[in-house]
Amino acid sequence: MGSSNLANQPGIYGTGGKASSSNVPGARYPAVGWTDASGNLWLFGGWGYDIDGNQGFLNDLWKYSGGQWTWVNGSNLVNANGTYGTKGTASPGNTLGARIGAVGWTDASGNFCLFSGLGMGSSGFLAVSLNDLWKYSAGQWTWVSGSDVGNQHGVYGTLGIPSPDNVPGSADAAASWIDAAGNLWFFGENTLNDIWMYEP
Hints:
Shape: globular
Structural class: mainly beta
Radius of gyration: 17 Å
Number of helices: 0
Distance between the termini: 36 Å
Order of helices and strands: EEEEEEEEEEEEE
Strand content: 35-45%
Number of domains: 2
Mean pLDDT: 91
């Protein structure tokens, strides 16, 4: 379909928000991807190569539509910290920190949601395990829950009882699935055996 047949290629970002046949994300793994209601492919983050060919954690958000990539949000450089803004408030300036191993899904309203991962929080230069929950809707990220600082303990509350105060601990590479009601379930983040449900 396009891009290079060689490994370890840097990204060609072009102009933010503008599709181009020459744009292409840098090589990476394991990124998070999803499709929107119009069938467009979206791609976020991973471990890979930035615009300068440097390798590290990525937080760039891309859309593939009509045979062209658009760089939508995030940095074109590796290891970028997040800009969290105010919890619960969408803003064009909000951006997730670079990461791998996040859990991603699409909610019942078609919004993309992302939880946890290993990467960069709101500050610092060392990779941390994260427990932040984000929603991407109408072109903006909203920090929904969790901490902007890594390596957090979970707040478990009472087993089987939902609470806005409950939050899983920092995690990456959890197993996850969506039930028929659109709730997120995930299990086994890091070396734990706890199972959680998130009801949007």
